[in-house]
Task: inverse folding
């Protein structure tokens, strides 16, 4: 549905050149919910605006639904753009017009009759759950309701693609979830292809089937969500994932308060992660039954991403050195990833160190 190839966007500010997007290529299939995640200034907004040519790239090509957008004449581009809806962080509604008029506005240039337009506006507002707000003004709505109006307006011309530029960043967590649920419903019922840019991996986790991670204008990692969450390759990707799973915060607390974890010489503080089938294996109980290794679970979390379970645990494993070694081999063979964070030997030698 969308193929960006070797996109470069450079801005000239006074005598300075800012390269906002650098050699980015990505491919979005029809029906994807594609997340682009990155910290502020990474180039996400610039990149997403390239998809509908709100931002013309300095170099590269933009193909949407089989059309080379950069080759289109202004009139053709206007009609291609109608098939690409967009929503924004601050909703961009017209405050002096009613909700009805906001949604009706993009239909003014359509070929629909007045009664067809009326029917369409009402249908759209029903789809987003706002049938009772036709005559209200934006100032009378909550942030979540305003975003629903913006979504209805973006769908007025039956687009195939919806671009979401930080669409939930101004919303509280509960409202964010309800908007993401609505987007998921639109993806599933209308077959809408969605591109979401966000700085929150939590958003990606809720709704996306694919994700690209951006840093300093480049994509540092991209792929399907399960592979990225279970085997992140890039440090930045790991950082983003850890913020969404809370595992790093827990580890930080444990490291800041060593009294929470009393490690004896043969104890190991480990982070254990697994994906898919391993969750049904009673791996933890096997450690005790087969290898005489006791496991104290300090933190456990299972996420279901695209119907695939992904688990993360922080545990203290205790046993003899040889039993621990065998247990680690067993976990490795069971496709369970183990990262040793600290061990009793290490911790106790640190305690004994002269200041
Ligand atoms: N019109 C412009 N003129 C000059 N520089 C720009 C322009 N638009 C963006 N930039 C610069 O390009 C870089 C990327 O900005 P962009 O807004 O795309 O990042 P972002 O990842 O979307 O960040 P945020 O989440 O804060 O919006 C930044 O250094 C920004 O200052």
Result:
């Amino acid at each position: 549905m969308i193929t960006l190839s070797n996109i470069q966007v450079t801005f000239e500010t006074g005598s300075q050149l800012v390269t906002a997007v650098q050699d980015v290529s990505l491919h979005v299939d029809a029906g994807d919910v594609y997340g682009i995640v990155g910290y502020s200034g990474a180039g996400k907004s610039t990149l997403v605006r390239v998809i509908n040519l709100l931002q013309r790239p300095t170099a590269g090509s933009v193909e949407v639904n089989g059309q080379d957008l950069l080759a289109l004449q202004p009139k053709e581009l206007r009609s291609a753009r109608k098939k690409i809806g967009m929503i924004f962080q601050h909703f961009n509604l017209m405050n002096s017009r009613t909700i009805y008029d906001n949604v009706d506005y993009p239909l003014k240039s359509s070929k629909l009759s007045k009664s067809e337009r009326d029917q369409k506006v009402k249908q759209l507002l029903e789809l987003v759950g706002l049938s009772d707000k036709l005559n209200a003004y934006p100032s009378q709505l909550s942030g979540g309701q305003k975003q629903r109006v913006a979504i209805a307006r973006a769908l007025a011309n039956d687009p195939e693609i919806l671009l979401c530029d930080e669409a939930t960043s101004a919303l509280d967590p509960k409202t964010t979830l309800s908007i993401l649920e609505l987007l998921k419903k639109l993806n599933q019922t209308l077959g809408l292809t969605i591109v979401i840019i966000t700085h929150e991996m939590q958003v990606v986790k809720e709704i996306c089937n694919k994700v690209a991670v951006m840093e300093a204008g480049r994509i540092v990692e991209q792929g399907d969500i399960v592979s990225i969450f279970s085997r992140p390759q890039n440090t930045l990707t790991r950082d983003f994932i850890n913020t969404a799973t809370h595992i790093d915060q827990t580890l930080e607390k444990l490291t800041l308060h060593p009294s929470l974890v009393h490690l004896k010489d043969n104890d190991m503080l480990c982070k254990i992660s697994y994906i898919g089938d391993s969750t049904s294996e009673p791996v933890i109980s096997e450690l005790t039954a087969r290898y005489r290794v006791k496991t104290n679970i300090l933190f456990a979390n299972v996420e279901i991403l695209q119907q695939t379970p992904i688990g993360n645990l922080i545990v203290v494993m205790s046993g003899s050195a040889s039993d621990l070694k065998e247990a680690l081999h067993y976990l490795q063979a069971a496709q369970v990833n183990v990262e040793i964070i600290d061990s009793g030997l290490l911790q106790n030698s640190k305690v004994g160190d002269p200041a």
Summary: The two ends are 61 Å apart (CA to CA).
